[in-house]
Amino acid sequence: MILKNKNIIYSILFVGFLFNALDAFSIFGIPLPWVSTSIFIFLFINFFIDKKFEMSSLTSQYFFWTLYCVFVTLMFLFFQYETLITNTVANPLLYVSLRLLNFFSFLSIIYSLNKIFNKDNRNKIINLVAYASIIISILSLISYFSYVMNFPDLARNRMGTGIGFQSIVKACTVLRNYGTFREPSFLAVWITPTIPLYFYNAKEKNYWYVLSLLPITCLVLTRSLTGVLGFIIAAFLVFIISSYKLSKFNIKLLTPIFVIIVCLVLSNLFAYKFPPLDEDQCPPYTPDYCSCEYYDDDQDRAKNSTNIITSIFSRLFAVINSGFSSFDSLNIVRENIYENNISILGSGLGISNIKFSDNYALNKTQASLQYSIRNGVIIERYENSIVSFNNLYLNILFSTGIFGIVWLILLLIKTLKKLPVNHNEYNQYMNMGFFVILIMYFFQGEELSVWFATFIGIFLSEKKNV
User: Fold this and answer.
1) What is d(CA 428, CA 422) in angstroms, rounded to the nearest whole number?
2) pLDDT of 97-125, one tens digit each?
3) Beta carbons of 214 and 137 less than 8 angstroms apart
């Protein structure tokens, strides 16, 4: 073992958590989330070279599942490499390698927590997550209010940040909280699972209730339907399960829902909408840049409402009314399933995205491009870019096949059985964080996240589970 001092290991783990959230920043051209991935893999190597390669039974099953995913990917990459070189991906090896590193990072966190975890340091690890969340929440709120109060935003220096369709400032659109990420939805997916941990820590210090306002306000200002709704559903689900298992209602478990509702109401005080462009700039820009009363559809109208509650929940009703047609990527996924069926082994991590992107581009209609005009030129919104599944389970299905997704589901079922259901209400907040991750994976995020691995690592590393 290279490092044995636990304080140093905790510090490295904390830096990994923090860098993972600095999505909009890079150092020497290297995105900080990639540095975070390297940190977690280093910790894995640090423990792996120890003479005792031990892990809990379920942790070892995650290990073998990861190896299977990597094997399938390398096999398809080797045999199909030439066919993967397109205008979108000039270097498939680099693109796929980054996806593989993400999987190794996922396993590294679980294994590292398995090695350092004990009953006494559980709260230490939870605090590392909470402290990282506080820092990112503060930085994100500074970024948001820099546009409201007209002072410089954080110096975003990662390639692709703040240009094209990722620009924060866009005429006639409402300001959403991008924070330290390149997209508001990325911030929501990262910050939401950490919120229950503030209520967990409140068992010892009441000021954590006040601190919880930071990530909750951060989440609300992203206007993320997935984040807000996912959190409410997860909290209510834990309340129902706990009440059923313990045969009594614990209303205190609904406190996070009450706090988020209050923040939703008060957040309208901080809503901001960018003004339209000057008349002499239209054309070549389209009407939605020049008139704040012009909207593409009901979802666009709801999304750009200055009332944050309306913005979030009107989109929910619009999605319910439209069904699957609200999600372009899901429509193409469904067509792919009908036309090509589903493979037993899948296509490989990253490789499935490349193939999906080609099919997506072929199915885009001219009507969907009518508002993608820049300087009088129609530009394909997804031209020369990789399209995301926006769904972890679909990504695993297409990447590792029926075998891979069934294996993952079985692992998740076994993990859910490990969740603590007892008279300690604070353990339920841990469950809440895990449930919100599983729920959000249906609508946002297609890669295994740091918090997903962290929660699994904590649950599987309890002494009774080893």
Assistant:
1) 8
2) 888 999 999 999 998 888 887 656 778 89
3) yes
Tokens 């008060």 sit on residue:
266
* Residues ≥6 apart with Cβ < 8 Å to 215: 133, 134, 137, 191, 192, 194, 195, 198
What percent of the chain lies above the pLDDT cut of 90? Answer: 37
Task: Look at residue 273 and give its three-state secondary structure.
Answer: strand
Q: What sign has the CA pseudo-torsion 396, 360, 363, 443?
A: positive
Among 231, 207, 208, smallest CA distance to 219 is for: 231
The residue behind tokens 């209602």 is: 249
Residues 6 or more apart whose Cβ sits within 8 Å of residue 212: 195, 198, 199, 202, 256, 259
Task: Indicate the residue type of 466.
Answer: V
The residue ranking higher by pLDDT, 23 or 366, is: 23
Q: What are phi and psi of 347, to 5 degrees?
A: -120, -10
> HEC string of 175-207?
CCCCCCCCCHHHHHHHHHHHHHHHHHHCCCCCH
pLDDT digits (tens, 9 = 90+) for 40-83: 999 998 888 875 666 778 888 999 999 999 999 999 888 887 77
DSSP-assigned states of every residue in 42-67: HHHHHHHTSS-----HHHHHHHHHHH
For 304-362, what is each residue's pLDDT tens digit? 788 888 888 887 877 777 665 556 556 666 666 666 667 888 888 888 877 776 655 55
Residues in CB range of 104: below 8 A, 6 or more apart: 37, 41, 44, 66, 70
Cα distance between residue 178 and residue 78, in whole Å: 38
CA neighbor of 138 nearest in space, from 149, 150, 154, 122: 154
The Cα–Cα gap between 414 and 458 comes to 14
ω into 283 cis (within 30 of 0):
yes
| Dist CA 88 CA 92 (whole Å) | 9
Nearest one of 214, 158, 151 to 183, comparing CA atoms: 158
Selection from 391, 236, 248 nearest residue 328 by Cα: 391
